[in-house]
Specification:
alpha+beta; Endonuclease I-creI; 2 domains; 11 helices; 4 strands; 61% helix; globular
Amino acid sequence: MSVSSEIKTFLQEAERRNACCRESFETGKQGGIYKERCPACRAAFTAGVFTGFGSVTDPEKAFHLDMRLEAPLADKLAAILAEEGLEPRQYQLKGGKVRLYYKVSSAIGDFLTYIGASKFALAVMEKEVYNSVKFKENREANAVIANLDRFATAAAEQRLNINILRECGVLETLPEELKETARLREEHPDMPLSELAQMFAPPISKSGLNHRLKRLAEEARKVKEQ
């Protein structure tokens, strides 16, 4: 199975708590008109568009992700991604279609994380680090590693922080909101932050969830420095 097929299968089978997010995913997959109903709908819609129209190369061979779309859908998706800080490059194709694409590993990793495929994003970043260490000067490799540090907020790094805190007996000593955050992240390892934030009772904002995850990361850092 190709990398593209693996990601699409994963996204198709991924848990989506809200009915509106499930509908947004199917709308994107069919190339339909996007209607935002909750904060997590954008990521679900984008995941659907990629599932229906996207492809990504095996990171062992090259770094390239693209989606070939009808112009109205391309314009809408490009606007959504730009607002999320994930602005794609664009190329006008024959027949009126538009190709939205990324050719930089960090951008591909950020996009995959946004649509809920963080484990595939981490594989892309790890391969870029490996390539840089093997084929480039140390200064260039350090720049890529810095990009990997920036990627530390992704679900894979979040789960690692939680495991460190649990193994050292620190997790149970933390405030209830941090323990709840750790529990929900582990129960939903690949759920986008915007949707995961809605799992709390009551729901919290995406920025509020990000703040809690940063607090967990800080606690894990303290443990590692002991």
